[in-house]
Design brief:
- The protein is mainly β.
- The chain has three domains: about 675 residues, TonB-dependent receptor, beta-barrel domain (Maltoporin, Chain A); about 100 residues, no CATH class; about 80 residues, no CATH class.
- The protein contains eight helices and 40 strands.
- The longest helix is centred in the first third of the chain and has 22 residues.
- Belongs to the TonB-dependent receptor family.
- It is a multi-pass membrane protein.
Amino acid sequence: MANAARTIKSTHTFPRRSGVAFAVFCACAAMAAGAQAQTAPAASDNGEQPEQVVVTGSRIRGVAPVGSTVVSLTRGDIEASGAVSTANLLQEVPQVFNLGVSESSRGQAGGAGNITYGSSVNLRGIGPYATLSLVNGHRVVPQGTTGSGIDPSIIPMLALQRVEIVADGASAIYGSDAVAGVVNLILRRDVEGAEGFVRYGTADGYHEHQVGALLGHRWRGGQVVATVQNDVHTALNGRDRDFFRGDLRARGGGDFRSTQCAPGNILIGGTSYAIPSGGVTPANAGSLAAGTVNKCDNLQYADILPRQERNSATFTFNQDLGNGYALFADGFATRRTYRMQPGSPSSTVTVPNSNPFYVRPAGAPAGTAEDVALSFAGQLAPDTATGYSRSFEATVGIDKTLAAGWKAGALYTWGKNNDQSATVHGLNSGAVAAALADTNPATALNVFGGPNNPATLAGIANGLFIAPGQTIFQNAQVKADGPLFAIPGGSVRAAAGFEYQRLRTDVGSTFGTTDAPIASSMGLGRNIKSLYAELAVPLVGAANAMPGIYRLDLDIAARTDRYSDVGSTNNPKVGFNWAPVQGVVVHGSYGTSFRAPLLAEVNTPVNNGRGALFVQNYSDPANGGALRVGVARSASNPNLQPETATTKSLGIDWEPAFGHHTKLGLTYFDIKYENQVTSYLSDLTLLNREAQFAGTGIIVRNPSAAMVAQMKAQYPAFGVLPENWTLYVDGSANNLGKSLARGVDFTASTRVPAGDLGDFGFGASGTYFTKYQVAVTSGAPLVDQLNRIYNPLRFKTRLSSTWNLDAWNANVYVNYQNAYDNNLAAPLQEVASNTTVDAQVAYRFDAGFLKDTTLALNVNNLFDRRPPFVNIAQSSNGGGGFDPTLTNPVGRIVSLSLNKHF
């Protein structure tokens, strides 16, 4: 696909006249900046710190995004949260959903690529890659073995000054990925002195701790702040949570236990014969009874959460250079390691009658081979996954203050990420087949419940899978913004700029065995050239206000992006703020957005881009929810087209004059998201929605012998392929989906001074969806998925109350999620609503050795609320009695923290 000249097929392009107007506007803004630069005064040398203002949702300095609401998490919110990472912090925001890419949930869109257990931000729940994450307003190097997305936890919480979220389409401002909105992680600046903190948290069978330090210094015309932080949380194993089980009958659910057990089951012609405890030999073959089955819970001792450790460092720097020039820089470095223990190795194998331990049940039809479903629990250790994610990035820029309020600037960002996932004790398909065909009793594999030669076991458990990936990101920008001219409502301001991005991702895999590894790798690249412009027009201001129009602002933005591999796109956005009276603002926006397909979606990193087969266990309603062995294919798709979206919003904000710092807000949103790139490789509940995929070829029951032969010849396999394929799933990325999301965001806050009793604050924020419809293919009808499992809930809210009195501070948060339908169960299950309470009390010492020290006690999930019961099968990607996308399996976490300022 290198340098393909394909044009994005979208209604989101400007007509020819608009493209000309866009270019003329950029040229006019640049000429205005240049003309005023001739008389630019020298910068002040009064010793003040150089201004470095970060605005989210607008390219114009000092102008908040017109038409869009900004959700802000302040430094106080960050310190009051019991979150152990920035990703956890963001999941407390009602507009953020934990779907697809997180350490606890990998079964939805995007989850298949998350093999190093990172996280991403999923605004509105419409996709893990439909939200753009920024640091200090600029892009950052993507993480993952395929460079797929941004993990917000690359920035430690100690380094955050605030987080700003614009839950509105913003591709006209920032380009690709800003479909659902933008999350901006803003680093701390202008800190004088040092700060250190330690925190330790514990729950049943789970522990976490953090330690960090910050050092800041200001001088005449400059500042620097540096932070370091270490975060660790232990693994959470399934045996420590009694709701994580395969057999859910005691709670009114199904029996989702596996038939791949120790001892296992002989399978002949669809009939099962349970192997008795202690095994079976030809001498006691009469103990095998037709229709019997052994069931077991292979995942009960698997980790629900991996062990994770992260070491991070950040810095910010500013320096006034004089003559109107100011230098700024920021950067981060982070290394995260993980360890994830899966369930016991298991498989369904075909045993020839030449195997010395072969047993044919009495009464079974004659044959030369039979299948045995078994687990190697007690014989082979789990194939534990380990790996790391390392990222480094630095940005340096310079701003020039020009005449008449204009400022020009340039910046350059260079970032590098390395990720790797590794397993080295997987079942070796070829060695298993050879050991089963071995006729020597001393070395042949016995799958009928008897002991095995340790050397034989070692020989079949040397399957290797290592997936390394490296991404190098470069970004260069030049920009200018300032006032153009005055009109009665105020000063018309503009911004224009050029941006160049270069992505290089080296992906690959090593498979085979530890003795004979087979390595493959390939390099993927992309260049992006972009022009953008923005115009802020104050049509009505203080000077020309009139009855019914106290203020009226208009903002017009446009951006054109030219990709070296997937064509080009133009995206506009228009926003307005109308204040009919002081204290009331009606705002609205209309725009288009897009997301270019990931490099790894166009070219799979497995087997030099040729793809591979993966043996997986699927929950099958045709078998009463029991697990079925299936084969999924992952392959490249060079025909992928970018995703497109149309976004609309309309809202009202009110700050009543009679209220004391009271703010109320209500915003309606409408997102039409089309041509969505979807892969079902990691969706192990796919068969529960099989009817939706009729005629697509994504699900094939009992594939033909010719199809199986073709797949085997074309792709290598990970796992032991079944002799008889009863299920095939096409897990490759395709432009399959479209969705329609509508709803309302709301926010309310107030502060109530109470004299000697202190100061009280109350707040509420939430999201109420009115519609969420999804089509699995572009030609399929939209199907209502609102309030259904693994889709957005109808209603989420977070209530807050705060209290301050002298050195004391307390916070209580109530998190509510409404009941929803589990349509993956038969009959349909209504999952109960969930309410959890978080609380913190803190005391700040103001004298003696402990002066400027804050001691805080935090309890997340104060009442130790168990996750609501969900009748869903366990899988390696989450689930099993609870919904990992909506609930935290850890339970109540009690933590103590100490923060000291020097």
